[in-house]
Amino acid sequence: METAFPLVSVSGTAFQMGYQHGKQAASLIRRYLAWIEKLAGQPRAALCANALRFLPLIEKLSKPYADEIMGLAEGAQISVGEAVLCQTRAEAAHRFEGACTAFALTGSATRDGHPLAGQNQDLEPEYAEVAIVLHVHPSDGRPRAVMLTFAGQLGYAGMNQHGVAHFANALYHFTWRPGLPHYPLKRVLLEQPGVPECVELLRRHRTCSAANVVLCDGRGRIADVEVRPEGIALYNDDHPDRRLHSNHYVSREFAPFEDGHLPDSCPRLDRIRALVRDNWGRLSVDRMKEILADHAGDPAAICRHGASGMLSICGYIAEPAKGRFHIRRGLGCQGHWETYIV
Asked: Which of 76, 155, 188, 311 could form a disulfide with 183 if both were Cys (CB 3.0 to 4.6 A apart)?
C-alpha cells in the first residue's frame, strides 16, 4: 500500500483550479464516479440528473465553487453532470453512511495550550482508493487550504491558512429535504476567518441531511455543531476546552432524534472521553495519534476494523496555531502519517 495519498496542488482562479484538479486526477475521478455508481446502485445518468438539481443551490452558496466545477469538468473531460455528482454523492443517491470519532481540544487540555482537532475517518475501504490530498492556492483573495478529499470532490475535511479546520461525524434519523449538499458547504467553511463565522455560515444555510461538525481555529477557539435540515444545535461538552463527538446526537435540542443507528457510537464516545480525561494537560499530536489507534476499548474501538462494514481508512490532526495539518493513510494502528504546511 502507498504510504501517502496522492497530492493534487492547484492555484489561480476558481476555474483554473478546477481545471488543474481535473487534469491531474482524471483517472481517479473516473474511478470515483464508478464507485459512486456502484455504491448507489443506480444508473449514472439518473444520478447526474439528480445532482444537477443541486447546481443552482451551489451557485447561490458560492459562485467560485460553481466555476471550479466547470473547470473540473473540462480538465477531467467529464460532463458537467458528472462533475456536479462528485460534489453531491450522498444527496444524489440518498445514501449517507459513515462512523467517525472527532475531537477538538484547546487551552488546559493540551500540553502547550495550543488547539488540536481531528478525527478518524471511518468509511467503506473503497474510498481510500480514490482519496487525494488537495492543496488549493486561490488567486482571488480566498485563503489557502489543505484537504483530504476524493478525486473530483472540491470540499471535505481540512484546514485553511487562518487555522480554521473542520471535521465531521455522520448523524442519522433524519428526513431528506430540499437543501444544500454538505460538501460545498465544507469547502466554504474553509474560506472563513474563524470559528464564529463558520457557526454563522452553518446557521444561515439549510442542508438536506444531517451531520455533526467539529471546528477549531488558530486563535484557539473550538465548537461542535450538530446540523439537521431543520437547523443547527451547538454542543458545548462538559468542559469549555473540549469537544468530543461520535455518531449520535448529544445536544439538548437534537438528542430526542437519536435512534441508536450505530450501536458502538456511545461506547466509542465514552472511550475517547476517558482517554482524553486521563491525558488532560498532556495531549499532543503524538498522543492523539495513539488515541486514534486505540483498541483497548474493544468492542468499541476508536480504530475501526470493519464494524458495520467500515474501516478507519484515514485520520487527521490539525495544529491550527502552527499551520500544520497531519493526514494518516490507513488504519490508526498501522497507517502512515504525513504532515502538510498550509
From this structure: 155
217-230 tens-digit pLDDT: 999 999 999 999 99
**C-alpha span between 70 and 59 (Å, rounded):** 11
Residues forming beta bridges with residue 243, ordered by sequence position: 104
pLDDT at 21: 98
Task: Classify residue 221 as left (phi > 0), alpha (psi -120 to 50) or beta.
Answer: beta
Per-residue pLDDT at 306: 79
pLDDT tens string 58-84: 999 999 999 999 999 999 999 999 999
Task: Give all strands of the β-sheet with 242-245 in edge-to-edge order.
Answer: 242-245, 101-105, 116-123, 311-319, 324-329, 336-341
> What is the Cα–Cα distance from 41 to 130, expressed in whole angstroms?
18
Contacts 24+ apart (CB under 8 A), 274-279: 275/302, 276/103, 276/105, 276/109, 276/242, 276/244
Quote the CA–CA distance of 96 and 172 in Å, as a whole number. Answer: 8
Pairing of strands 336-341, 222-228: unpaired
Residue 208 and residue 189 in contact, taking contact as beta carbons nearer than 8 Å = no
Please state which architecture CATH assigns to domain 7-341: 4-Layer Sandwich (3.60)
- Rounded Cα distance between 77 and 98, Å, is 30
Look up residue 18 and give its amino acid.
G
pLDDT tier for residue 333 given thresholds of 50, 70 and 90: very high
Mean pLDDT over each residue of the chain, to the nearest integer: 95
Q: Measure Cα distances from 27 to 21, 24, 34 in Å.
A: 11, 8, 11
Q: What is the pLDDT of residues 122-139, one digit of tens each?
A: 999 999 999 999 999 999
202 Cβ contact partners less than 8 Å away, ≥ 6 residues apart: 185, 189, 213, 225, 227, 232
> Long-range contacts: 250-254, Cβ < 8 Å, 24+?
250/226, 251/226, 253/226, 254/226, 254/228
C-alpha cell at 223: 465548537
